[in-house]
């Protein structure tokens, strides 16, 4: 806050813009993919010069959050930057100027994958970075002796609600073949090991 104390008029907007671009650049360096918000995540929302509006919010199971003066805000299939823009635009209808809004992740509790079937430790797993199929199977303790290595499928729900089954041949990948099938998992993917 002290950095901006001598700024007036458009100066603070310029300084804030520089900080936001810098933060976005650091985020881009830290992660090659942009994080998509999931139900169960906790977001920190900071509204510039409006301490009473800044807060942490939980993303509901329906993919929405509730924010003062704005009401329900859809976060499903959105990045933190997109949610910040939506809140900023909505608040601009009630304020003299559209305030800058920064949305950051406090917790990614909604970023989960599931492994079921013939693995040693089936269950749900919280993932904090890019996780491929082999890594997910390792999290589940590996395949048990009765698993059908070449019949594994990844169930993925698309944004439109439809579901697809992606085949995965464990035996080929462990031999160093068909490595392109060892895909990075999306949040809520289910690996089925028959």
UniProtKB/TrEMBL annotation:
One GO MF term attached to the UniProt entry: polysaccharide transmembrane transporter activity
Gene3D superfamilies: Outer membrane lipoprotein wza domain like, wza like domain
InterPro entries (alphabetical): Poly_export (IPR049712), Poly_export_N (IPR003715), Soluble_ligand-bd (IPR019554)
Domain (Soluble ligand binding) ranges: 112-166
Keywords: Signal
Pfam families: Poly_export, SLBB
Residue ranges occupied by any Polysaccharide export protein N-terminal domain in the UniProt entry: 31-105
PANTHER family named in the record: POLYSACCHARIDE EXPORT PROTEIN GFCE-RELATED
Name this protein carries in UniProt: Polysaccharide biosynthesis/export family protein
Species in which this protein is naturally found: Parahaliea mediterranea
């Amino acid at each position: 806050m002290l950095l901006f104390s001598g700024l007036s008029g458009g100066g603070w907007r310029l300084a804030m813009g520089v900080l936001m671009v810098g933060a976005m650049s650091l985020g881009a360096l830290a992660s090659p993919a942009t994080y998509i918000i999931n139900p169960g995540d906790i977001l920190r929302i900071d509204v510039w010069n409006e301490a009473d509006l800044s807060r942490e919010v939980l993303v509901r199971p329906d993919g929405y959050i509730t924010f003062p003066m704005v009401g329900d805000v859809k976060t499903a299939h959105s990045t933190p930057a997109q949610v910040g823009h939506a809140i900023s635009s909505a608040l601009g209808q009630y304020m003299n100027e559209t305030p800058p809004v920064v949305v950051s992740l406090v917790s990614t509790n909604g970023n989960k994958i599931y492994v079921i079937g013939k693995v040693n430790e089936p269950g749900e797993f919280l993932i904090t970075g890019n996780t491929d199929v082999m890594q997910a199977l390792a999290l589940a303790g590996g395949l048990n002796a009765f698993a059908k290595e070449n019949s594994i499928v990844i169930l993925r729900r698309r944004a439109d609600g439809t579901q697809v089954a992606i085949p995965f041949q464990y035996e080929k990948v462990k031999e160093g073949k068909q490595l392109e099938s060892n895909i990075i998992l999306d949040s809520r993917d289910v690996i089925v090991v028959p």
